[in-house]
Specification:
There is one protein chain. The protein is α+β, with helices and mostly antiparallel strands. It has a single domain, classed as CBS-domain (Roll). Helix content is 32%, strand content 17%. It has five helices and five strands; from the N terminus they run H-H-E-E-H-E-H-E-E-H. The strands form two sheets. The protein has a three-stranded mixed sheet with strand order 3-4-5. Strands 1-2 form a two-stranded antiparallel ribbon. A hairpin with a 5-residue loop joins strand 1 and strand 2.
């Protein structure tokens, strides 16, 4: 005689793949922004005050026009010693990098890490639909890698 099961029909659970970790999940949202007409002195003061080594430069309408870093300021400091003159009150637009490489918010963390490795950059402004939405640094990638579990390592 056959044994009858009273458990009912069993539901087969599909294994869902974990969501991929995106740049938008780990980027910095609170940015220290710089203006092209801001003096290089004020920029250096902001670097110290906010403990950052660079950041995006935006115009009055909020459009990304460049990026400024400590390395950009080193040129002015070096030139001032060479010419035996104090640091001039030049503006950010004289020192900023105009050709800014950005990263899309929907990029995976692994693709972003690869981009950091290939370009040797320290930070990327994050763009979503042609709008500046954040900034991604190497440190953000390292922190994300430490927080990943084995099932999300994709």
């Amino acid at each position: 005689m056959a044994i009858k099961s009273f458990q009912g029909k069993r539901i087969i659970k599909k294994r869902s793949s974990p969501n991929r970790l995106l740049v938008s999940d780990i980027m910095s949202h609170k940015l220290v922004l710089f203006n092209p007409d801001e003096s290089i002195h004020d920029v250096m003061k902001k670097f110290i005050k906010f403990r950052v080594s660079g950041g995006p430069v935006v115009n009055s309408s909020g459009k990304l026009v460049g990026i400024i870093s400590e390395a950009d300021c080193m040129k002015e400091i070096s030139d001032s010693r060479y010419f035996n003159m104090p640091i001039l009150d030049k503006t950010v637009k004289h020192f900023m990098t105009n050709d800014v490489q950005t990263i899309d918010a929907s990029t995976t963390v692994f693709d972003a890490a690869s981009l950091f490795f290939k370009t040797k950059k320290r930070r990327f402004p994050v763009i979503n639909k042609d709008k500046l939405v954040g900034q991604l640094s190497r440190k953000d990638i390292v922190i994300a890698a430490l927080n990943m579990k084995s099932q999300t390592w994709r």
